[in-house]
């Protein structure tokens, strides 16, 4: 469940009075999502999403995230548009939490990823990167390569309870990743989503080929290597339930990405190393949550070991061709 902060009808109506959004018709809590409280709103003006930002989001970073979303939408990307109140301010407060209303995006995220989803996903990722080029405010990646050693330290005491030998394996992987990581300044960087998993990409599939209808959840977005975002997607979209890497999905994703933003020879060569790093990033954050989440806490834990086999796969990749690049 992801409605941590309850909002009464009266409080919501008073909050909405500061927006040019007409009268409230209906509202309901959305169960999906784990970070924030989300409500679907219907007003006489249309459909919206109300988000109350919970403790895992640093409130001082919200203007950067909302500013990025406004910027991307202004450049034609289908992303939630933060709606400003009558005073021009989008970031407000409700029930003691920072809060914002964004436009509602149509479509559903794919519960089972098919190869036909991966081309449109690659295209949307490239469009996001291109649209972000003139958003110049920098937000360093708090979960980037420099954070992985300290994160591994914080998992060291309890990580073995998840799988014997895990920490020694991750020590070796991290050493390999750091040794092969692209040197600063050698690859293009820009604004990346950094968490573009299937549950953050909506599609419309009205009988024909799936079309991306929107990208959501920009709260891990940051300034980092553009090709690292591609690596996150190869991890999240291109493995099958039997743990095999689906090179057809990877080729579709990369073909449609490159058709809009061609990967340089250096980016292509670095992709296996970036994929290995991205696998470690999601393994570590999941492992940290796994061993540190008290029973009954309102955070849904995800399986860290799903990323161990992905990590092993990318560690053994013989070159960009072996991952479809
Ligand atoms: N702009 C939007 N339009 C339509 N539906 C949305 C929108 N934003 C969020 N939702 C709905 O709310 C759900 C949860 O949103 P989101 O993934 O952003 O939650 P979160 O808790 O902030 O993040 P996380 O996925 O990291 O837990 C989505 O799966 C989707 O159903
Ligand atoms: N997408 C992340 C969680 C939310 O950011 C994961 O699957 O570990």
TrEMBL record:
EC supergroup of this enzyme: transferase
One Pfam family it belongs to: APH
Alphabetized SUPFAM superfamilies for the sequence: Protein kinase-like (PK-like)
Domain Aminoglycoside phosphotransferase: 27-263
Keyword check for Amino-acid biosynthesis: yes
InterPro entries noted in UniProt: Aminoglycoside_PTrfase, Homoserine_kinase_II, Kinase-like_dom_sf, Pseudomonas-type_ThrB
A GO term, aspect molecular function: homoserine kinase activity
Protein name: Homoserine kinase
